[in-house]
DNA sequence: TTCTAAATTGGAATCCTTCTAAAAAGTGTG
DNA sequence: CACACTTTTTAGAAGGATTCCAATTTAGAA
């Protein structure tokens, strides 16, 4: 549950001797309880009432910290700006190339990939990230595409 | 071979009724023959002698076009700026978290992922991208990390 | 060759992100 | 509890990547 993940993540900060400030707790709580893949701006605005003096720089700093710790991951969806996602459980993302929507898919089973990559590249592998692209159900309807029509179209022109 | 991939990619432009301009041909040729995952700036400077009046905007426009067509893919390596890679053969990338180096790994075998993601998300899936992170062999030496030492370190503090 | 839509150019403008210096707030010690 | 020290936050400036724009040029078709 959410509370567990929060305390676990806060413990992670303590383990690394990183100060647990109100800003960090509140940003972390936001991320644990919202799975909308927020941008920096979204987080900043959402927390305006809780932390009226919160600085954008702090949001940036905090997110970078969380990403370095592996608590949070970064994603791009074609919009300007980076989006963030609490990474409590391994999952990957499917991104809509039309509207930018990001959907979680919990079905990793990519465990072998890291070992294989390490073997082939000589890298000391620490993590991986997988992104799948396509059209979300809503956009399929909006654009009136059927699976076959879409496949035909993709073969002839590019998406604007 | 490279020449084949170039003509094939140019044919792709024609099929989509996209004009084959000198700028596009030259940028495409650069990408087909260089596998250094160049940034926009790298491409711009490399082509300065061939196309003295080339505009940065054209490089941006052209790369976006190629990405939309699926000829080229975008990657980030932690540096500022986006890097590009001709996608003649399916492969994925291993990125060094210390120096930003990007290494190709040709061993997809992720074919099932798209179908699975489509099934679980309802998206009409068109492509996917996989990135693996770690420390490249050079940085392992430079930093004097052994596999076990590194794993221990990763458990205790974050990378700066 | 001529015509038209598409592409390119170069510079301004925009927007995301980082930097900086000063103030504020944790943490440990005596 | 006060002190000293370090980390963190803040606000705004600065930086840098990318996009936008109007004017010019060009590719490709008729």
From TrEMBL, chains A, B:
UniProt-listed SUPFAM superfamilies: Winged helix' DNA-binding domain
Keyword tags: DNA-binding, Repressor, Transcription, Transcription regulation, Zinc
Pfam family, one: FUR
Domain of life according to the entry: Bacteria
Family: Belongs to the Fur family.
UniProt xrefs under PANTHER family: PEROXIDE-RESPONSIVE REPRESSOR PERR (PTHR33202:SF8), ZINC UPTAKE REGULATION PROTEIN (PTHR33202)
The protein's name: Fur family transcriptional regulator
């Amino acid at each position: 549950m959410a509370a567990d993940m929060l305390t676990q993540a806060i413990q992670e900060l303590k383990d690394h001797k990183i100060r647990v400030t109100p800003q960090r707790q509140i940003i972390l709580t936001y991320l644990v309880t919202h799975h909308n893949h927020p941008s920096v701006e979204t987080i900043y605005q959402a927390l305006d009432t809780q932390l009226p003096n919160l600085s954008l720089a702090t949001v940036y700093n905090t997110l970078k910290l969380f990403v370095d710790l592996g608590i949070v991951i970064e994603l791009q969806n074609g919009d300007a700006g980076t989006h963030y996602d609490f990474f409590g459980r391994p999952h990957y993302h499917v991104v809509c190339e039309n509207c930018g929507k990001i959907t979680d898919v919990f079905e990793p089973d990519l465990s072998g990939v890291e070992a294989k990559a390490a073997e082939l590249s000589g890298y000391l592998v620490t993590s991986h990230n997988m992104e799948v692209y396509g059209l979300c159900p809503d956009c399929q309807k909006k654009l009136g595409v059927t699976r076959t029509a879409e496949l035909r179209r993709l073969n002839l022109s590019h998406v604007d």
